[in-house]
Design a protein that fits this description.
Length: 383
């Protein structure tokens, strides 16, 4: 395959921090650990960085605190926060900034200590602003919002719990090939169905993990990428949108904004669905994946259940997806989107080891944030 898009910017370095339960590190230390490793991966130092991107709820102005901690004084800074899809948007914004000649090397980071945080799970004393219309009436957030979407999809299209479980089982099979994954024990569809009900129809094994962890991605201009240690992973296409904040205001519970962000990403990249070799799809819950596959156009609305059946997304299947084990089995420190990019870059570099998708040249990454509120799609490729 010959890449049709102009080579403007590329991912040249990726890395995670320690993952899982990491009580000895705070969010700054996790991001510093990941950033150092990602810059090492690129063959760069922090002195090469002239743009800084991050997102999170761990400070009133995360970019200021992170820049001070890392000793970086960027000439371009971006704190776009649209939940778990923030980092796919950061990649798109970095591409735009590099195209405009504003900077050459961008560092994107994320970190969270939500698993080891003793305050996690504490009752929220009040429901501010528009949350008063949902939380006050007993809707368990965030899982309750996704459960509403799942039950609507079942009602409208006849989707079954067994079909949702197919996603969890296939993702676990990928995790079994990833030594960094938190959950590596094999599971079957019956295990998912017998696991504790969290918010009907979503069982425990339909839900993502709760972990600590950090990640970092280095994006460079074509000029800077030429001196990187490893071959560049080109940013070919990007699209983003958000459609609502509260689940009651989602325009259609069965259709996400990925329909628009994906369409724009495909148009910009100049590639088709059939050309995608590997997909990394945000999997906060199994229903998130099913809705996203339909919205992106890999199948028609209502056909997601059939699309994932028969372990089609598992190792050896026709549609390799979430090859690191995903948020369901690998890691999920709150805003998971940066880990989708890390895995996609590794697959395109051929660094997947036991989980490598043979001859992967094109990858699609789709982040989802909030309560199916935001989506950001990135298409990556290698020469």
């Amino acid at each position: 395959m010959i890449l049709k898009s102009e080579r403007i910017a590329a991912i040249v370095g990726v890395a995670e921090s320690d993952l899982g339960l990491v009580p000895g590190k705070n969010v700054l230390q996790l991001q510093a650990q990941a950033a150092k490793a990602a810059l090492d991966d690129a063959g760069f130092t922090k002195d090469d960085v002239d743009a800084l991107f991050t997102a999170g709820n761990w400070a009133w102005a995360p970019n200021l605190m992170l820049g001070e901690y890392l000793g970086i004084k960027p000439k371009f800074t971006d704190g776009t926060n649209i939940g778990g899809s923030s980092f796919e948007s950061h990649v798109g914004h970095a591409l735009a900034g590099i195209r405009a000649g504003l900077f050459d090397v961008a560092l994107i980071t994320y970190g969270s200590t939500q698993r080891s945080n003793p305050a996690r799970g504490a009752a929220v004393p009040f429901a501010p602003l528009t949350e008063q219309y949902e939380r006050s009436f007993g809707l368990p957030m965030t899982v309750g919002a996704y459960a509403l979407a799942a039950i609507r999809h079942m009602h409208q299209y006849g989707t079954t719990s067994e079909q949702l479980a197919e996603i969890a089982v296939a993702t676990r099979k990928w995790a079994m090939r990833n030594e960094k994954a938190m959950m590596r024990e094999p599971i079957e569809i019956e295990d998912v169905l017998k696991s504790r009900m969290i918010a009907e129809p979503l069982h425990l094994l339909d839900c993502c993990l709760v972990t600590d962890g950090g990640g970092a991605v280095v994006v460079a201009s074509a000029r800077a990428a030429a001196r990187a240690k490893k071959r560049p992973v080109w940013i070919l296409g990007h699209g983003e949108t958000h459609t609502h904040n509260s689940i009651a205001n989602m325009p259609d519970l069965t259709m996400t904004g990925a329909r628009e962000s994906g369409r724009r990403a495909f148009e910009m990249a100049g590639v088709t669905h059939d050309e995608i070799d590997v997909a990394e799809i945000y999997d906060s819950f199994t229903i998130t994946v099913l809705l996203t596959l339909e919205a992106l156009g890999f199948c028609e609305p209502g056909e997601g259940g059939a699309f994932v059946s028969g372990q089609r997304t598992a190792p050896g299947g026709a549609f390799p997806m979430n090859t690191n084990g995903g948020g369901l089995s690998y890691t999920h420190p709150g805003m998971y989107g940066i880990f989708l990019l890390i895995e996609a870059a590794r697959q395109l570099r051929g660094e997947g080891g036991e989980r490598q998708v043979p001859n992967a040249k094109l990858a699609l990454v789709n982040g989802t944030g909030g309560v199916l509120s935001s989506t950001s799609t990135v298409i990556l490729g290698r020469d």
